Amino acid sequence: MARLLEHHALGFFREEKIPVPRFQVVSTAKEASEAAAGLGGSVVIKALIPVGGRGKAGAIKMAKSPSEAIGQAEGLAGRTILNFPVEELLVSETVNIAREFFVSITFDSMSRRPVLLFSALGGVDVETILDRDPAQLSQFPIKLSQGLGLSQARQVLDAAGLTEKTIEEGAELLCGLYRIFCRLDAETVEVNPLVLTQDQRLLALSGVIVADNQALFRHAELEGMAQPDRTNGWRPLTALEKDMRAIDAIDSGSAIRFNEFSDGDIAFMITGGGAGLLAFDAITKLGGHPATTFDITPGRVEEKMYRATVAILSRPGLKGFIAGGNITNFIPIDVKVRGVVRALKELDIDATKFPVVFRFAGPGVEAARELASTVPGIQFYDAATSLEDAVARIVELTKSR
Amino acid sequence: MSILLDEKKKVLIQGITGRQARTHVSYMVRYGTKVVAGVAPGRGGSDIEGIPVYDSVDAAVKEHAVDISVLFVPALNARDAALEAMDYGVPLVVVLAEGVPHHDAAQMIERADEKGIQLIGPNSQGMISPGKAKLGGTGGAEPDRLYMRGPVGIISRSGGMGGEIANVLTRRGIGQSSYVSIGGDLLIGTSFVPLLRLFEQDAETRAVVLFGEPGTGHEEEAARLVEHRGFTKPLIALVVGESLERLPKGMSFGHTSSIIARGIGSPSRKKELFRKAGVQIADSLADVGDMVGKVLG
Fold this sequence. Notes:
The structure holds 2 protein chains of 2 kinds.
Chain A lengths: L1 E2 L2 H10 L7 E4 L2 H10 L4 E5 L12 E4 L2 H9 L5 E2 L2 E2 L3 E5 L3 E12 L4 E7 L6 H7 L5 E4 L8 H10 L4 H20 L2 E12 L4 E3 L2 E5 L27 H10 L7 E5 L5 E6 L1 H13 L6 E5 L5 H12 L6 E6 L7 H14 L9 E4 L5 H8 L6 E3 L5 H13 L2
Parallel strand pairs in A: 15-17, 17-18, 18-19
Antiparallel strand pairs in A: 1-13, 2-7, 3-4, 3-7, 5-6, 8-9, 8-11, 9-10, 11-12, 11-13, 14-16
Chain B lengths: L9 E5 L4 H13 L2 E6 L7 E2 L2 E4 L2 H7 L4 E4 L3 H13 L4 E4 L6 H14 L2 E3 L5 E4 L3 E4 L12 E8 L2 H13 L4 E6 L10 H10 L5 E6 L5 H10 L7 E5 L27 H11 L2 E2 L3 H12 L1
Parallel strand pairs in B: 1-2, 1-5, 2-4, 5-6, 6-7, 10-11, 10-12, 12-13, 13-14
Antiparallel strand pairs in B: 3-4, 8-9, 8-11
Helix pairs in contact in B: 3-4, 5-9, 7-8
């Protein structure tokens, strides 16, 4: 889920000969004005941030002249929009729009193949409309072994009521998008809006490419563009989240996934995708406020557990700490517990005053219990106690504080 | 009885020489899994604890009948290994790797569909038919800690939570017919529905527990199956992640599938559809134990 910035997406479109508006990337109002002059005076100015919903959030401005461009660019540059600081602006030529469409190529978890989504509704807020009224969105499954052919692409456009000449151009365009989707191993390639201009040209006015983090190892061309460390999905990483990425980088043998919540007060380190969700639901239901989520895949985890615990518990305002996870099959849990206990000792945590609950189960449970007992006050639970009961315990202990 | 796996199924191990594979294969064999051969390119002719190793699936299947292949290969090689197994006619392929690129997963799935092969995973933890055999990491060195033979089927999108559910049941003296970990990725070869159909046919299975998560429409599809009487035994569903609905979109706890998008995949909707179809909704692991206990009488 690494979303490329728009100018990178437009760059890939251009390489595939997909028509895009003329554009320039700038960082100051003065540069924006100069760019506007070079693009014919009337321009659209957009904040380059890695999230959707920019139109509604006021991150897209129109300017009729280079002088107007100064004011509009000043209103964007340096601001924080949708949680992201605006460092660069995209200035692009305006076009006379006759019709707008929405095109997306992505994976469908149900047909379990790529699907081309097309709608004759395009533009700002189209996603909300399509969520409400899915009938406006046509879906065309694609067989990977055959790819998207020109004839299939023509059918899509024909169904949308385009004229013959435009259908030919549009079919080439859709096939170009599919080539990008495959070439980059992308999760999603999207154009919104795809516009038909008043002089009957098709143009990809704005584009989104979402790269697959798990395929980045074979895509050197995306280096510097697809930045999984730039965001956690909806906002930039917090300082603690950045620290955690650095801790994760000490060893590629296991992977940490971590989120921080500004309003939480219980340090929460329940590992396992499913177990983490179950425990998170349980803690929320009981009125507890987790400050973090944490997951780590198997590997040499002791050092990472130690450093991660130190980092998490250094956060101010915490009332308690719960660590553990689902019953493991073969991973010795004492290795994890050793890291956590080392951190507790180093931080001089008094678990008789600052509640600490462990729920660890699996091979090595006796050694783990032994380690936990060296820090007085830790409440240790194993497979005899459910994850939810352990969660209830930390909520109860922190509520009275 | 059981589904997909028993002590008679002949199992091939791709990537058998890796450290993790060796450990797990030894546990599998000890439990009763009939491992007939292994594959490791360049290592053909050797053996691992008496299991013959071949350079390719082709070479292995010339010498051995194979019912199931289990892939202990890293994510970046998983596609090629899975396609190789399918091309040589292995009818059931289990992919354990986590972090398989989407395009690779989609290619495996398409080939499996074309050839009528049952693909489990990627990102499966394996499966177990208690008292008979196990595949992958499921159950670890001591499967009897969590699993015992009995009448309840388990299907889970989370490997770890399948074990937790078995733990709850076993502690109450309720055994399991088979547990299948289907994988937490966005694109998986086998979702709930085909397995529910198999459990429906399995005489030993009297009830099924399903563990669901946010994202995808797999639970919705299972609800439709029950509604249309394609599955008629008692079904108990534990669907987690409702608390995510109040958080910003795009957040993931680790499973690539667990992102709610385009109106589908929200846990509250999944639960609602299950309820309408007559599926029992468990709100906790303890509920799972109570509900299963009650339906078995």
